[in-house]
Fold:
Amino acid sequence: MRLLRWLLVPIVVLPLAWLLLSGFGRDPREVASPLIGGPAPAWTLTTLDGETLSSADFAGRPYVVNFWASWCGPCVDEHPVLTGTRAELGDDLAMVGVLYQDATADADAFLTRYGDTGYSHVTDPDGRLAIDYGVTGPPETFFVDAAGIVRDRQFGPLTRALMEERLASIGVTP
Amino acid sequence: MVPTLGHVAVVVGLGLTVYAAVAFVIAGRGGDPRVAGSAGRAVIGSFFMAAVACVAMVASLLAHDFSVRYVAENNATTTPPFVGAISLWAALEGSILFWTLLATGWASLVLWRHRGRHRSLMPWVGATLATINAFFFAVMTWPGNPFVRMTPVASEGTGPNALLQNHPFMALHPPLLYLGYTGLAVPFAFGVAALVTNRLDEEWLRIVRRWTLVPWVFLTLGITAGAWWSYEVLGWGGYWGWDPVENAALLPWLTATAFVHSAMVAERRGGLRIWTGALVIATFTLTLVGTFLTRSGVVASVHSFTQSAIGPWFLGGIVVALAGALGLLVWRLPGLVGGGRPSGLLSRETAFLFNNVLFLGITFAVLFGTLLPLLVATSSGQTISVGAPWYNAVTVPIFAALLFLMGVGPALPWGRASWVTVRERFTSPMLAAVAVGTAALLLGLREVIPLATLCLAAFVAVILLDEVVRGARARARGRGEGPATATWRLATRNRRRYGGYAVHLGVLVMAVAVAISSGLSIDRTVTLLPGESAAIGPYELTHQELVVEPLADDARVIETRAEVRFAGPQSGTLATALRDYPSSPTAIATPAVRTSLGEDLYVTLLASDATSGAVTLHLFVNPLVAWIWIGGAIVGLGSVFSIWPERRARTVTVEDRQAAAVASVEGA
Structure:
């Protein structure tokens, strides 16, 4: 009976502590993407250099779609991660940047200021592709495997470690 | 130089509070009483240290000293001084600093007010408060240092939180809320002290009642001011959205309110000692959980600051506080059981008991709703959110029952009521409720919740009126005073009772205003070219002009403003805007509200087209909203009236009496 009484303390404290603890490291704004496990949306868009690029050009290869904007602060933070991955992996991994509600001139200025990524960026003038992917705000990055299936999604800026973790889902090891 | 001074003050504050905590424990365990005196001075010293740190931070903000990271992230050279100064609580680190100032202030006030009295309780009260404050100083020394420097020094800062900048109410809402939050540590400290010394009797209840009511008033006003701010700033036409952080403020308010009521039963009739002790512990723990939810970024909300390293610290603090206090309660459990005088089923204490059960019911419901997204995310990885409809469905019936009890409780006598009393007291209130309900139905009111609230309000209002009139009449008859004089004298001689009535009246006003304004508000969205008009309710609005220009007092902020003329029960012009702040990715709405006692006309700009001058406006007519704020003010005034020291009542404690007895023996 005495012991039972003392059990009251952990019975109240532990579940609460566990629940609050489980909240760490999770972004509450992150919503699971329904795209994961399904085919990646197809698109044909114009790059910043004025050329036409299509998702079909990546067929048979794993690729990364990164939504970004020049006005987005965290996009500056993840910029070196993207550039570094590109420099390291080269053609083993296809990458494409998609402008999210941004002016072409501003995007060009961003790339001039922070350095070219080494891969192409397409404009998404009416935001169709962002809607197809269900993007809520930049930066948001999708990882598509060689079969054209979306395997993972990064909500918010990528870090070196997150990049490696996400890339593993599409069978790419840096 | 100034930031360094602030940082040194924080570290010294940590040293002082740690010393105070240890010294108080030594004094509490039977050490030299002078040790307690020294510890008390250390607590007051820690308050001055917190004040120095706050002044250093405000000075750095006003001087735009961007070498301090907090300043660089929350200030810009163009920031007006007023906004700069209140940026002290614009973000995480500054909030904790301000919080510590208030917490050490409360601790100093308590120790000073009770100096030389309650010799056995006070060291433990001091030890508990000093430990809590040491925790906050430690957070500011390690993970949440507000004075972290940055090199190279930026030439321009990010600017303050746009929401903070947008409305002067931001100067009022956080301080009031924090005063409430931090003050609730005081009853907790008394609870711990009473458990440690095993003196959980009427003495601690009497002291703690007042120390709970004062922060309770601040919390009430803080919540009301927050609702008002959200109504005036966020632009969605409402004032309460069951946001996790609103809930976080509501949770301790609910348990504190339950405590204020249960303490009355415990004081008058004995008993309920475990219960009141548990309520005090729950209230303080919930303030910590609230802070944790707000400040750690664990739950999505308008208020959440960026994720930070203080989360684990707070979690540790919650666990220690809850486990420690519960452990004490369990340890003292055998001595706390029973002790109440018997009472009948129909009695005031039964009403209070139900009141407590209902308050706890709402607390659990709100806590469940707030933590459920976290639970689901953890257990299944799904993302869910619990919205206003769920909270309304669950809590509205309980609130209605509480409203009913608010009438029943005061009308029933302590101990046992006879059916004759019940019939006598409740006939006319019942009739009033039926009359008001019928009148409202005849006037065309069909919505259930507003209708039910009106009936309940009439019921309670008549009971309150009856109580006041009955008392005044008896006194007027006995002493030959006029009715007004008799009422006033009676009220000032029974401040607790009559202050309570005033608080209940304020709650009644708020309840009616909330029910009517949420049940009967109308809204529509219109797109208008300049010169075009739209109608809503009795009003006709004409869009006059779309203006895009920088703000007069901060040129970095671009305002897109729709100027609207309106005619109807009132007429005039309104200007509603969207403001682009450099520090905010989304434009901040600036709704225009024309308030009157009957209804508010509320206009928000949703979108605009610069070339055609077209605007999309969300229009609302919200009835009786002003009465929510008026009701809040009545609650505040009623509480102040209730706490105001009574003229003659100099409370004589047991220890005073013992001291007097000892003195007389020694004198003889």
